[in-house]
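ok trying this again, last paste got cut off
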Amino acid sequence: MKARTKKALLAFHRWSGIAAGLVIVLVGVTGSLLVFEDELDVALNPDLYSAEIQGLRLPLDQITSRTARTYPDWQPAHVTRLDDAPGRTLTVTLRNAGGNERQVFVDPFTAEIVGERSSLSSLALIRRLHGDLTLGGVGENALGLLSLLLMAMFIVGLALWWPGKKRLPGALSVKWDGGSRRVIRDLHNLGGVYMFAFLFLSAVTVPPIVWKLTAPQIGPPAPAAAPPSAPQSAPENAGPPMRAPAGGPPPTIPWQDAADAALEAVPGSWLGFILRPLGPQPFFLIRVFPPGENAVSKQTTVFVNRYTGEIIRLSAPAAPTWASLLSADFAASLHSGAIAGLPGRWVMFIAGVFFPALFATGFLLWWRRRKSRLTSAAARTAADP
């Protein structure tokens, strides 16, 4: 590599890291925490997620009805079950007219409310910081651009480190007896080299997530979502009614009917998430999982007609293709390592921790170099007559 080119690339790598370093550290650390978000949430809030097993689970409509009566100004939007542990509670997310959200944790056997929290919990704040820096769409776009910068920095860093084939064996270990500056430089270089694939993966999966490069297909809703000719009555305990205007479609089917339709379409699965349609949306969005699984890469998404209970579309896990990289769900499973199960999640956890480590060692190299130059300049000034 020519000296001028190397100098330019080094300047890009150094100043990009310094300029964006603190944001990179923030995103890396919060990302590591979110890899094990569910486990952390249960460990920090065990009372919210456990219920005494007694009899059969109640229908979802009784669960949502209880929350609707307890919080009359809020409407049940979706119901989540963290995993298929027998004593796991259900999380009902409520929304009010202002678009605010509240999580209510309900015993699935008695419909008793065991706890609640706002959307501003500590883990929710970590999720916002990692997902959009709490800046909404502006933050998402900033993180998308930051991911492009990171990819360029990783490639440039690898090119700057590359010692050539002959010197490669000796460049793959830290020279602990080479002085503090050499040790710091080796730790910085080799940290990036050995984790390059996973650090690059964490960056390249960001654009599909924040920019939704491919829209999810839900199939043609027009024929499937057409309301039946005979009106159906909504159950008494289904929560706030979603009545259509006179002459319009009939009421939305009960929560449990939609869930049963999805579970029947995917035998042996358990219900992890159900979103009730609000406004003109023609379907329930439901996610089911195989026994013992709750990773995004294992989920099957089922779209159920809100009026008839018929399946509009079923999106099951499929063999990944190059086009899959543009899918937000698939990119998210790569981003978190969930696609490779627990080992993959641990690898991505470690990759997140490497971001602050690389920033710290890189900053130290720059600071020591700057301090040395200032000292030399001061010495030359003092030596001048």
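PB: full thing came through this time. Residues 219-245 have pLDDT under 50 and may be disordered.
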